[in-house]
Amino acid sequence: MSKKIILVLIVSLLIRLIGIDQSLWLDEAISVNVAKNYSLTEIPTKFSKSDFHPPLYYLTLKTWTNVVGYSEVGVRMLSVIMALITIVIIYKIGGIGPAMLVGFNPLLVYYSQEARMYSMATMLATIAIYFFVKKKYLWTGLFLGIGFLTFYGSIFLAAGLTLYLLFNKQYKETIKLNWWVVVAIGINWPLMQQQLKNSAEMLATVTNWDLVLGKVNIKNLLLIPMKFTSGRISFEPKIIYYVISGVWAIFVMKSLSPSGLLPLKKGRSELSQYLWMFWLTLGVGIVFSIFTPMMQYFRFLYLIPIMCLAIGKNKIIAGGFLVFSLVYVLNPNFYREDWKSLVNDLPDKVYMIESFRDPVVYYNSVIQISDLRSQFLEQEVTVVPYGEEIHGVDHEKILTEQDYVKIEEISYRQLSMEKWQKLIK
């Protein structure tokens, strides 16, 4: 490898190491508790039936944690390593310019610090793109299939590449590409059926579950270019944030204008290919989400390397990505939920939505957790009202009706702990 890509990798790694020891948030705690408490055979046969993701990432994390342990840094380093591999693959495809964009992209930086499947899915999708560009379609399909077993949203990329081949009347190549994808779907089909049934039940019984999945609406559509280019940061006043991130998104995304879909100018066929990959995949995802909500920007994270390939070499955009990434990693106010600090202050018993208990269990498995919708018996109770809006729960109404009054509230990052005392009559 050249000195330039080694430098990009070093800088990319250093960025990702800043703040990597921050508190695990809910979904990360779920990942780690699964790796800690289930065996390799129990993950697909027991846990995954009640989850909404395929099991491969959890199996990989289980194997990883058997070596490095369960610390915040340890579990997240798996995603960091996969992010660095993604940068190298992009360098092999498009050279130093796109590799720099991928290494510095603020949303990729964020998700490469997260103990979830998105960095792994992005790496696998990027490897698939590498083989697709090389016209090695069986290998493309193999990594698309592995990607599907890691993250179901990867199927949109398989569909996008399939449509691209069909539009170009490459029928034999289409069969080659989808061979391993079909095998992967077949392997996972019994589990998927159970998960689809569970998802339908959640949509029917949990008040705002569709908000978690992501409807097709203007907000979710606009968040894709904004988050793809400025990451997960947000600040007040919102109008200034929207102006800054919106203008920046327009500047970056103009490289992906649909006008480039046709190779009208000499030498633009490669750009056209990346644009077709990007827009076809996103289009399939949008259409699918009209019927089954999946329209959240992070579910399309694997499109960012394709976006960077389409942009090519652009030092201004690379510099902007680096600035947004540094703004995020150097400011803890932008980090996710601070469960570590909250759990440290909790008493021996707490009331909360029980399905969101994993962070508490990770940081202190001794604490007794009772459901927020239960009957309160103690004179003083501690409540963590996290996620209650998803389940349509109003803890203040419940407690007030049982003659409790709030005596204290302590705020943490995106979290709060409340103490309530029963009135003496």
Which key features would you list for this structure?
3-stranded antiparallel β-sheet, two-stranded parallel sheet, globular, 425 residues, 2 domains
Descriptive account of the structure:
It is a single chain. The chain is built from 20 helices and 5 strands. The protein folds into 2 domains: 332 residues, no CATH class; 84 residues, no CATH class. It starts with a helix and ends with a strand. It has a 3-stranded antiparallel β-sheet with strand order 3-5-4. It has a two-stranded parallel ribbon with strand order 1-2. By secondary structure, it is mostly helical.
Strand content: 5-15%
**Strands side by side in the biggest sheet:** 3-5-4
Distance, first to last CA: 76 Å
Annotation, overall tally of beta strands? 5
Q: Summarize the main sheet.
A: 3 strands, antiparallel
Order of helix and strand elements from N to C terminus: HHHHHHHHHHHHHHHHHHEHEEHEE
Give the fraction of residues assigned to helices.
55-70%
Low-confidence stretches are: 264-268
Which assembly state applies to the chains in this document? single chain
Structural class: mainly alpha
Overall pLDDT:
91
How many domains make up the 3D coordinates? Answer: 2
Enumerate how many helices there are, as a single number. 20
Global geometry: globular
- Alpha carbon gyration radius: 23 Å
